[in-house]
Amino acid sequence: MQEVLAEREATIGLYYETRENYGAAIARLETVTDTYPLYSKSDQALIGIGDAYAGEARRVQMQSNLPGALRERLHSMYSDRAAQAYAKVITRYPMAPHVEDARDRLVAMNRPIPEASQEAVAENDAEERSRQALHFSDKTLGLIKHGPTVVEAVHVGEPSLEDPKRTLAPDITKQNVAMFNEAVNVGKPPAPPANAITPTGANEPPRSDQPSSAPLQLAPPAGGTGVGAEVLSAPSGSAPITGGAPNDGSAGMKAVGPTNTALPAAEKAAEAPVQINEVKSNGPTVTNTTDKKKPKVNDKEESDSKKKKKKGLAKLNPF
Prior knowledge:
Elements lengths: L1 H17 L3 H14 L6 H20 L6 H25 L6 H10 L9 H12 L6 H9 L24 H16 L135
C-alpha cells in the first residue's frame, strides 16, 4: 500500500519538475522521502529534489535585475540545498541503482562526496535484495491491467505507521522568501529588539524615547535671586533717603511719567438726525424744518437767451 501511495506522489512531483514548477515538485518529492522511506524509487525522488533546487539556482543566475552579490549568495544557497539532496542518496541508499548519478552531480558542482556508513550499506543492501526483478511479462501486463505495478516493493523493514506532516508548496515558498531575506541582510547588523533601550552615556545627548532626567526648575541659592543680581530696598520703618520724600518703598527714586493720571471724560456721541416718517399715521407728524419752499422765478430776471412770449400788439409783429 505504501508503495502505491508513494508512486502516486512521486509521479506528480516529477511532472511538476518537467513544467519547471520547482516549488510544487519539491513539496511532493519531500513528502515521498519523509513519509515513505522504503519506497523502491526513493533515490530517484531525492535526485529530483536536488535537480529542482539546481533549477532554482539557475533561475536566480538569469535574474539580471538583481545585484551581482545577491545573485551569487542565492545561487550558493540553492546549490547547498541541491548538494544535500544528492548527498542523502549516497548516505541513505548507497546500493540503489541511481547512486552513481548523485555522485556525478556532486562532482560537477565541485562538492565533496560523502561516505556511507557500514550500517547504511547493510540496510540498503538487504532492501535491494528483497525486491523482485521486473520481467518482460510484468511490463506487458502493466500496459493492460488497471493499477500500479508493485513487483519492486521492499519486503524487509518496518514501514512507519505514523505519517509525518506533509510538505506543501506554500511552505516551500515561505522557505524561498526566508532565503532571499537572509541573502539580502548578509553583513548588516541585527536589528535590536523593539523593547530594548540602551542607556545613554555621560556625554551623550538624551534620547527622544526616554524622559529627561534633569530637574524641571532649579531652586535659587539661599540669600539671592538666582540671576546673579541683588535687589536693594530700604528697610521697613527707616527714614527716607531723600529729604521730604515719603517712605513708600521706592528707595528715594521718583516715578517716571505725568503725575496727573486721571482719565479724560469720554466725548458725547453726535445726535442722530430726525427721522422723517412719510407713512400716514394717526399720531403727530414730524416735519423737517430744514426744508424750505423754492422761491418763484422772476421772468424779468431770466436770461435773455430764453425765448419770451409776445404780449399785446407785439403779437402782430412777425419779426
